[in-house]
Amino acid sequence: MSSHHEREVGITAAVITVSTTRRKEDDISGKTAQELFSAAEIPVTLYRIVQDQDEVIQDVLDEALSVANCIVFTGGTGLTPDDRTIEAVAPSFEKVMDGFGEVFRQKSVAEIGSAVILSRATAGVIGGRAVFCIPGSTKAVKLALQEIIIPQIRHIISHASPR
């Protein structure tokens, strides 16, 4: 779609790291996401590190929805039993952006080959806000933000938010 479909919208971001082991001091992926948003002149209004527990993830999702219209969860998207981000977030999606996961996996093949089938990266819309769930590796964060989310977020929000 051409950019003439975009409305002038302000973008604010939330970055949420889901991990049982990361702390602010060693959350390189969370810091990278914040830096990339900042470089794109998108203010980060919320940053949290939370445990891989459905209720905790849902609580921070609610908090993020109140202060940002672009919410990025990093981590907790794998196949291990304690990876709970998708299970906690996806039921709240009003609309699913299937193309996000498809493009993310397509772009990831060059870096990780057929292991890309383990990726459950997904995105959706909740209340006119875009929510992205991506793997917690720094490479995945850079790929998702630089090549997909930041270039498309104004277009996404201009369509998803109430007019």
TrEMBL record:
<dbReference type="InterPro" id="IPR036425">
    <property type="entry name" value="MoaB/Mog-like_dom_sf"/>
</dbReference>
<keyword id="KW-0501">Molybdenum cofactor biosynthesis</keyword>
<comment type="similarity">
    <text>Belongs to the MoaB/Mog family.</text>
</comment>
<dbReference type="InterPro" id="IPR008284">
    <property type="entry name" value="MoCF_biosynth_CS"/>
</dbReference>
<dbReference type="GO" id="GO:0006777">
    <property type="term" value="P:Mo-molybdopterin cofactor biosynthetic process"/>
</dbReference>
<protein>
    <submittedName>
        <fullName>MogA/MoaB family molybdenum cofactor biosynthesis protein</fullName>
    </submittedName>
</protein>
<dbReference type="Pfam" id="PF00994">
    <property type="entry name" value="MoCF_biosynth"/>
</dbReference>
<feature type="domain" description="MoaB/Mog">
    <location>
        <begin position="14"/>
        <end position="156"/>
    </location>
</feature>
<dbReference type="InterPro" id="IPR012245">
    <property type="entry name" value="MoaB"/>
</dbReference>
<dbReference type="InterPro" id="IPR001453">
    <property type="entry name" value="MoaB/Mog_dom"/>
</dbReference>
